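Reviewers asked in the last cycle whether our approach scales beyond single polypeptides. To address this, we selected a multi-component target totalling 262 residues and predicted its structure end to end. The input consisted of the following lines:
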Amino acid sequence: MDSRSDHGNVLGRCLRIRTFGVTIHDVAAIDTWLEEIATQWSLNETVAFKARVCIAELAANVLEHGIAKSDDDCIVVTVDRLEDEIQVEFVDSRHAFDPTVSATTKNHAQSNGGGAGLVLLQAYACDLTYTAEANSNRTKFKVRLS
Amino acid sequence: MQVTVSDFGDQVKKVILVGKLDIVGAQKIELPMATVSGSKCDVVVDMVGVDFIASIGIRHLVVAARTVARSSRKLVLLSPNALVTDVLTTSGLQDLLPIVRSEDEARAIFTPHGQS
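The resulting structure, written as structure tokens, was:
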């Protein structure tokens, strides 16, 4: 499924929202979209990179660990630029997967790198929160501009 | 993601990666990395052209490094950029995936003591 919606500036804020499907190509499309936003907003390279890594890890978790509910499973990404931070909301419709559970470098270093995604997410994201809702998972985080 | 494999001296293979090592890039490197790591050679992975990396891409590098190590060989990463380096070090994989900053440094790691 390709991206299905995108909203530009909302009420004068730099806000982008887009809905994606849950395939490898959708996950790749999310990153391409984020690169476009970073260019449009002239984002600091490090901030943009860290936000992309966090979202890539969340999307990969949905694809790899989120048990499919239907063919219409989707990922909705909202990126909001505030004065000194980027706020990201990541919502998916698959079964619950909590990315805030404790991750350590020791555990995945002993495996084949599994768990590195959570380590990266938790290292790069600030104020990471997760809420399991009736039909979706809602993850929010920030990446500081400074 | 573009993958190029070549010889890098005696019993050493060089893999040049260019592009995003994301979920799609990871798929593209899986077979070449498996082939190279099974060749019982030391391996240098040229990361200069990698501009993005996620854990799914790291996974294939880790699998390759473990395979190479089983043959008492080494795999090193050559000159990833600062952001990619930060991902690798933040992941805590610097021991398994050592980083070198030049081809000479890579050769020095691969060359047994007493040989030049």
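Strands of chain A lie at 6-7, 14-20, 75-81, 85-92, 126-132, 137-144. We regard this as preliminary and will revisit it once experimental data from Aim 1 are available.
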